Each structure stands twice: as C-alpha cells, then as structure tokens.
Amino acid sequence: INAEYMGYKNMKLLTHNLLVCNSKTCKSKDVPLELKHTEVVQRKCDFNLPFMLKLLPRLNWELLVATVKSFPIPIPLPESMTPELEHNEEFMQKLHVILLETHVIEGELICQTCKKVFAINKGIPNLVLQEEASQSTSHL
C-alpha cells in the first residue's frame, strides 16, 4: 500500500461497505457490491473513538472481513464483532485504519445479483449506469 496519493479524495473502504447496486433493473437492493481493487493507498486521519462506535451497527461485518482478506492489509479481522472488541481501543484503532485510512484509487464494484460493473477511477466510484444515463439524455 502506498503511503500517499496526490491529493485525490478517495473512496474509503467504509464507503464500499455501505454501497449497494442502484440499477433500476436489479432484483435485489440490499446485496453488497463486490470490490475488485487494482490500486489502494493509505492516508492517515485522526482517530475518533465515538465516531467508530457509532459506525459499528451500520457495518456489514461479513462483507468487511471478506473484503479485507483480498487487500494487502496486514490487519486480520475476527469473523464476528463482539462487545469485548468494541471496548478494546487498540482493536478499534486498527479498525479505523481499515475503514477510514484505506482508500481505493482504481478498481471496480460489481453487483452480485445483476452483475453490473461500476468503475472506480482516481478514487471516485462511478455509480451512474450507462443505459440509464443515455435514457436521461435521449429526451433532451
């Protein structure tokens, strides 16, 4: 993982954990997107324990564990989050590194249901679907 990346606002791993397919034709609106990364960087930011604790209930833990296994991150995650871990500040700091300091610069997000592919370029996920974009401009 590179230490920095030229000032781009990048997609954090936290963002990936909260995204779902937005295609109008997709049958499932709650299936997480698979992440295939080609470039990842880490950028330091301040640790905020209260913020981290508020995030925990919103996380798809199973998705996070699977995603982190595919990353060059030397921080293994347990298969499940426990109350003991929530009160372990050292663990919460490691989780902070994974969620808020790990940025995807280039890659793809893939819907597991409809197989739509959304590109990530220069740290920005493009969730605009080509067919839906062309439909919205065809009546102009």
- Which assembly state applies to the chains in this document? single chain
Low-confidence stretches: 1-8
Instruction: Please work out how many helical segments DSSP would assign.
Output: 6
Task: Report the biggest beta sheet as strand number plus sense, adding barrel if it closes.
Answer: 5 strands, antiparallel
Q: What do the pLDDT scores average to?
A: 84
Radius of gyration: 16 Å
Relative helix content: 25-40%
Beta-strand share of residues: 15-25%
Q: Indicate the overall shape.
A: globular
Q: How far apart are the termini? A: 44 Å
Element order: H for helix, E for strand: EHEHHHHEEEH
Structural class: alpha+beta
Secondary structure: number of strands: 5
State the main characteristics.
5-stranded antiparallel beta sheet; disordered N terminus; 140 residues; 34% helix; alpha+beta
Question: What features would you describe in this structure?
Answer:
Strands 1, 2, 3, 4 and 5 form a five-stranded antiparallel sheet that branches. The chain is built from six helices and five strands. With 140 residues, it is α+β, with helices and mostly antiparallel strands. A hairpin with a 2-residue loop joins β4 (117-121) and β5.
Provide a short characterization of the protein structure.
Helix content is 34%, strand content 21%.
Describe the secondary structure blueprint for this structure.
Layout: E1 11-12, H1 13-18, E2 33-42, H2 49-55, H3 61-69, H4 83-86, H5 89-100, E3 102-111, E4 117-121, E5 124-125, H6 130-138
Antiparallel strand pairs: 1-3, 2-3, 3-4, 4-5
